Amino acid sequence: MNDLAIALRTDGEKHLYEQIYDYIKGEIRKGKLRFGERLPSTRSLAEFLAVSRSTVELAYGQLLSEGYIESKPYRGYFVCQVEELFDLKEGAGWDKGFARSGKEGAQGRQFGETDGAPGMEGKTRMDAAGTAHLPYVCDFSPNAIDMAAFPYSTWKKIAKDILVGDNREMFACGSPKGDEALRETIAHYLHASRGVNCSPQQIIIGAGNDYLLMLLEKILGRDVPIAMENPTYKKAYRIFASFAYPITPVEMDGSGMCVDGLRQSGARVAYVMPSHQYPMGIVMPIGRRMELLKWAGEMDGRYLIEDDYDGEFRLKGRPIPSLQASDRLGKVIYIGTFSKSIAPAIRTGYMALPPPLLEAYEKKCSFYSTTVSGIDQRILNEFIRNGHFERHMNRMRKIYRDRHDVLLAELKEMEGQFWVTGENAGLHLLVHDRLGRSEGQLVRQAAKAGVKVYGLSEFSVGNAPFCPDGATLVLGYASLDRRQILEGMHRLKEAWRA
């Protein structure tokens, strides 16, 4: 292609490589640089713009790390398909936070360098009969994530800068809702990436979803009848059960929670995961979302709890807007966390309360202190505001998409035995048996081969267990590199050979 006509300014605040990066990124997002289009070489563009080649290489390196372009050996740089990438900075005036280095993520082990299943080294496992076996070679856990690509050096630098500066107010107790700057940043992020409409005042920050759900019990009151999808996120079920809430599991169809079943349950609150139901992987269509909002709006005191635990990880197509984005009556309690997107140990979640419940929070819970360290909140705020979170998410999406594709390709070879659902979002997929085998049989055969898989029945709740037609397994892939996935699938093919 021709060289890019970029009007560089030498009197502005931005470095030259930032201006080149911003221009190319903007052209890709506007569709002016299309998927598969070849970019000029670094040497050619540097000569055309009369800048050093290293300046262009810095800009291209950043675009590569965020997944906007790809490098093909001996051919050059080409535009990637980026419709699924979200951009926190677009139109938001956050450009000043552009990273000064393209080296984050270089610390620690890189993709494909891990050894063995995480946390399983040297541990002997026991089967139901008490027989000892060697450790699992591969664990397809749907809950684990990859930490090898986490930008440790960036996180460490932010922490150091915050502690070196004169930030005495950071050591004060602070607002019960959480750090004000972080709440503003989260409100902006949620609107830009998930379409959530809320003010920073509506956001409560807490140490994970467990604490936020316990806080919600104080806000909603005791003995609140609640409806939950079946199967569902079992930890949330146990938390609600610990409140002595009457819980009614409601069946799902291909669109999510059945509204007729919800009406029959007599519930005041429904707990749903519309962007990617766990574990079924269903993405709730807009029609069903409107039905749920209509149900909530028919009576005072009815609410929907939207758990958007991994809404960022839509691997095919654009991220789906949140249910809260369609709420016009203040009926949706939006809950999210950074455990999946950054790291579980950060223990930072957030809850956006609708105005009526915000008043109840102020009356009943405003005396509770925040449960997240002020220092950790400041670090997280800088990590998001300066663009590191966006770059990390785009990089992880590429890594997870590669692993997702490897697993699907392996399962494709087994299509005579299984069919797959839930493969377009989240970090796990469902494998359904075609041959009439039981779930227990498949799990046991996998375990004998040194592979840990999970039966769908493990996520069933209530007195009437969810019973799908045929055995169904839940396979997560986020914590496994390419080599581990191939080894695990090789073993499963041998174990499940019909």
Task: Output the keywords.
alpha/beta; 498 residues; 14% strand; 14 helices; four-stranded antiparallel β-sheet
Structural overview:
The protein is of the alpha/beta class and 498 residues long. The protein contains 14 helices and 19 strands. It has helices spanning 16-30, 42-49, 53-66, 152-164, 180-194, 208-220, 234-242, 259-265, 286-297, 355-364, 374-385, 388-412, 439-448, 482-495; strands spanning 69-72, 76-79, 125-126, 132-133, 138-139, 203-206, 226-229, 247-250, 252-253, 256-257, 269-272, 303-307, 332-337, 349-352, 418-421, 428-433, 451-452, 454-455, 472-476. A seven-stranded mixed sheet has the order 6-14-13-12-11-7-8, sandwiched between helices. Strands 15-16-19-18 form a four-stranded antiparallel sheet, covered by helices on one side. The chain has a two-stranded antiparallel ribbon with strand order 1-2. Helix 4 (152-164) packs across helix 11 (374-385) and helix 6 (208-220) packs parallel to helix 7. The longest helix is centred in the last third of the chain and has 25 residues, at 388-412. It is globular and about 70 Å long.
In short:
With 498 residues, the protein is α/β, with parallel strands linked by helices.
What does the secondary structure layout of this molecule look like, with pairings?
Blueprint (H helix, E strand, L loop, with lengths): L15 H15 L11 H8 L3 H14 L2 E4 L3 E4 L45 E2 L5 E2 L4 E2 L12 H13 L15 H15 L8 E4 L1 H13 L5 E4 L4 H9 L4 E4 L1 E2 L2 E2 L1 H7 L3 E4 L13 H12 L5 E5 L24 E6 L11 E4 L2 H10 L9 H12 L2 H25 L5 E4 L6 E6 L5 H10 L2 E2 L1 E2 L16 E5 L5 H14 L3
Helix pairs in contact: 1-3, 2-3, 4-11, 5-11, 6-7, 12-14
